[in-house]
Amino acid sequence: MHAEQEEAPAAAGALAPGALSGLVVADFGRVLAGPYMTMLLADLGAEVVKIERPGTGDDTRTWGPPFADGQATYFLGVNRNKRSVALDLTDPEGLAAARALVDRADVLVENFRPGTMDRLGLGYEQVRASNPGLVYCSVTGFGSAEGAHLAGYDLLVQAMGGLMSITGEPGGPGTKAGVALVDVVTGLHAGLGVLAALRHRDRTGQGQRIEVSLLTSLLSALTNQAAAHLATGTVPRPLGNRHPSITPYEVFEASDRPLVLAVGTDRQFRALCARIGSPGLADDPRFATNTARVAHREELAAALSRPLATRTADAWFEELTAAGVPCGPINDLAGAFAFADRLGLPARVPDTAAGPGQVAHPVAFEATPAAYRSAPPRLGEHTAEILAGLSERSELSESAGRPAPALPRDRPGERPVGR
Questions:
Q1: Integer Cα distance of 264 and 15 in angstroms
Q2: Do 203 and 51 meet the contact criterion of CB atoms below 8 Å apart?
Q3: Which of the residue ranges 3-7, 190-194, 237-241, 355-359 has the most confident prediction, judged by mean pLDDT?
Q4: H or E element in which residue 261 lies
Q5: Beta bridge partners of residue 211, listed in sequence order
Q6: Domain boundaries, the chain
């Protein structure tokens, strides 16, 4: 938050200020990694202004079906709590407006192909002189040097970054994850980097440029598989739903549908054997330790499959969970959200709060909870409002002794006009 901005007390009945209230984010991000990160910041109170191309906007606005409220659900899922400004950055007036916004921002996020922002006149070296405290976050696919020419699409990174080589059935083709997981992980890393850079600015007064790539984010997320390769030279291969280092940690067929066992300790394995009526398995030298079980995983799977097939997945879930054995059925998304509801976890946002199809912010804060102030914006919905606010701020800041006002905000809890 800039020094001249101060927190206003919350009005009676209004949403309490979030942990990031007062933070202004100029969001040039598109598609998923950048917008996902800035939505998380917005949930926590940051004022996020999304800069989009006139006429078309963020590519994901048209990535459907499915559509809801006349917009692609892909876009709706990562753009709540933001305001949209449509600016032609190739036009001098549009560029000047963008520069004025950047000059007043705490954070800039962009995921254009490397070099694009420099050509537009919005590169870090071009804007830092007028805003030395700016945290400038660039999200790239394969870095800004040798890999700058490569298109940063999630599927390509899953392929070239090794994730597909360890996903799928043994001997089968590489398989991608069911969502753009690399984009999501990169967005989380970018958010962590931004918060760390803001902490550095709090101490020193200086901003900085940070860069996070999809490729290095994925490699970091490969954790134990990457560590095994770097430490031993082993090249992991796909094991389907099995774990390379733990057994039984896989899928079995119950009498009605698949059941996952995630047995991580010898104690859990002994409890499993007792509950399925095969206590002798826990004393069999082939299965007594995890290392032995991994070496004899095929024999163990056969021994467990027969008793597990005699009852339903839900019945095993209740009995084995009570015995301390981690297990559960494979839910579809309807079942997953129903399970979260059963646990009392706020996994979804009411449609009236932030538009249709919104998954709740995943972090629960005791004092500064996430808030859902507004639905994902229509393209350019706030252009006139934002530009008028920038003009007013500029005029007042030129008057001696008169502090520049903050950018205009939606009233707390107010749903944007036109929803």
A1: 43
A2: no
A3: 190-194
A4: strand 258-262
A5: 138
A6: 24-236+359-392, 249-343
- Residue ranges of the alpha helices (H) in 150-213? 154-160, 181-204
Contact 181, 155 (CB under 8 A): no
Indicate the SS3 state at residue 197. helix
Q: Which residues contact 403 (CB under 8 A, 6 or more apart)?
A: 4, 396, 397
- Write the CATH number of the domain with boundaries 249-343: 3.30.1540.10
What CA–CA distance (Å, rounded) separates 32 from 359? 15
**74, 271, 279 from 307: Cα distances, Å:** 42, 14, 12
Asked whether 179 and 106 are in contact (CB, 8 A), the reply is no
Residues that are catalytic: 183
In the 8-state DSSP scheme, what is residue 288? S
First to last CA, the chain: 30
Q: Which CATH class is domain 24-236+359-392?
A: alpha beta
Region of 105 on the Ramachandran plot (φ > 0 left; ψ -120 to 50 alpha; else beta): beta
Q: Over 70: is that where the pLDDT of 121 sits?
A: yes
In 3-state terms, what secondary structure has residue 208? strand
Under the banding of pLDDT at 50, 70 and 90, the label for residue 16 is low
Contact status, residue 379 vs residue 84, Cβ threshold 8 Å = yes
State residue 70's pLDDT score.
84
Per-residue pLDDT of 156-185, as tens digits, reads 999 999 999 999 999 888 899 999 999 999
- Longest CA–CA span in the chain (Å) reads 86
* C-alpha 416 chain-centroid distance: 24
Q: What is the pLDDT of residues 70-117, one digit of tens each?
A: 889 999 999 999 999 999 999 999 999 999 999 999 999 999 999 999
Give yes or no for residue 44 having a pLDDT over 70.
yes
pLDDT attached to residue 407: 56
DSSP 3-state of 292: helix
- CA-CA distance, 1 to 104, in Å (whole number)? 10
* Amino acid 394: pLDDT: 58
